[in-house]
Amino acid sequence: MKMNRKSRGFVVGMGVVAGFFAITALASSVFGASDKLRVSNCYIGGAILPLWMAKDAGFYERQRLDVEQIWIQGNPATAALIAGEIDLLYCIPHNTISAIAGGADLVFVASIYNRMQYRIVAAPGIDKIEQLRGKVVGVARLHDVAHFYLRLALKRFGMSDRDVQMAAVGGQNDRILALKNGRVAATIVNPANALVLETWGFKTILDIDSLNFPVIGNAVATRRALLKERRSVVVRFVRALAASMRKIQDDPDLSKKVLARNLRLQDKAIIEENYRFNSGKNLESFPTLPLDGLRYAIDSLASTVPSAKNLKPEGLVDLTILGDAAKTAP
Asked: Which contacts (CB < 8 Å, 24+ apart) does range 260-268 have?
């Protein structure tokens, strides 16, 4: 039976389509399909840049990862990790440590920005930290991490939190408003917000990072059960983060664009400041896990989470993930 030209064209076309799907299937079997990961960051700020850059620059894709990035604020993010609603959590470690102290089977595999990126900003007329005696100082919450490091800073200058009046006024925007309205004489904010306050006539009286306290910064945590089942996926995630960190250092222009878009910034000076304190000396060359900083984090919880006193930094981490991530990818 002879086919007309139209029929032969249809058969040839179907053959091409079939061949395309065959090649696609072969490629998936040879190179491996992307592994899905649900990753949460527990706040929005410049220190999320490594996650944003890893997505934008294609480093997840190069590691055969399909990453869904989700913003879940504060304590609910840790609860979501415990419940299995997310696979990895990128956040300051204190809520996770509290959960571990309460019996949660979580573990840290990496951390980034292990520096104390806070500044104490005061009202006009206050030029040094000693002048805060008897005055009201705004923090987010009593006994949180910022409060802990503020107490350490006061101690370095021969003072304690009994020499000032600590006021829990909320997040950084709330603390800025409290300082502007005169509710507090000083507050503790990140460098970008300190810059904004300085343009309004307030003064940075202490860069806490200059005191060189041991710090563990934004840490990546997961469930031990997931790590056992999907170890190679977690290793590849850390590799993607490492590539992102190098890109941040090597490509300031792209980094600033990513920051501006995700933080909805337009002021060039604030964009520059955000990039400055999320790159350079503030950004490690490779993810790490400083145990001395983890010890400080544990100690900072002792007054509100008594069971944290029993924790050992070495028992909260899996350092082998960093070792495997540092090896050349197969």
From this structure: 262/44, 262/48, 262/52, 263/44, 263/45, 263/46
**54: nearest Cα among 67, 40, 36:** 67
| β-sheet with 165-168: strand ranges across | 165-168, 136-139, 186-189, 119-122, 203-207
Q: CA-CA distance, 307 to 314, in Å (whole number)?
A: 16
Residue 78 has pLDDT above 90, yes or no: yes
Token representation of residue 122: 């005061």
**Tokens 């620059």 found at:** 57
Q: Which of 145-159, 247-261, 269-283 has the highest mean pLDDT?
A: 247-261
Tokens standing for residue 262: 């995700």
Give the span between the Cα atoms of 185 and 183, in whole angstroms. 7
Return the beta strands (E) in 183-299 as ranges.
186-189, 203-207, 218-223
- The pTM assigned to this predicted structure is 0.79
The pLDDT, as a whole number, for residue 322 is 97
